[in-house]
Design brief:
The chain is an all-alpha fold. The protein is built from 6 helices and 2 strands; from the N terminus they run αβααβααα. A two-stranded parallel ribbon has the order 1-2.
Length: 152
């Protein structure tokens, strides 16, 4: 049983490390991130984050510190969307930067730039923000259930 847990933890820590590297690479991007960049499916990453947090807390790590970090990583999965949606946001961000440049130079916006600005995935961005809050709550409930099963 202990060997099985050690094997699962090793896999979980590897996936979490890979997920962390993805988040670092995405840090300078937009709000929405391509889900194809995730090292595993969202459900697998969620399970790894919960397993890791529960294990560390049950072994004496400070619960508040562990759960805050894990909750953020868990909820951030809401910002991973289908690649086409993330690409639309990236195009919008590029168009917005271009528009700012034109405004600074007091020029009129070219038609294609104005058109790109109209393609903002606003609904998807709002859904991701709402999803973040839902995932925070989901994490808290799941972690509480897991920890209540631990002896001690």
């Amino acid at each position: 049983m202990r060997d099985e847990l050690a094997g699962k933890l090793q896999v979980a820590f590897r996936i979490i490390a890979e997920y962390g590297r993805v988040l670092e690479r995405q840090a300078e991007g937009g709000v929405l991130m391509p889900e194809s960049h995730l090292p595993e499916g969202q459900d697998a990453i969620k399970a790894c984050l919960l397993l890791s947090a529960a294990y560390r807390i049950s072994n004496g790590d400070p619960p508040d510190e562990i759960s805050v970090r894990a909750r953020i990583a868990y909820a951030t999965l809401a910002y991973f969307v289908p690649d086409a949606v993330a690409e639309r946001e990236a195009s919008f961000n590029a168009a917005a930067q271009g528009a700012l440049g034109h405004i600074v130079r007091k020029g009129a916006l070219p038609g294609e730039l104005a058109s790109s600005m109209a393609e903002a995935p606003v609904a998807e961005m709002e859904n991701a923000r709402a999803g973040y809050l839902l995932l925070e709550s989901e994490f808290d409930g799941a972690l509480a259930r897991i920890l209540s099963d631990f002896p001690g």
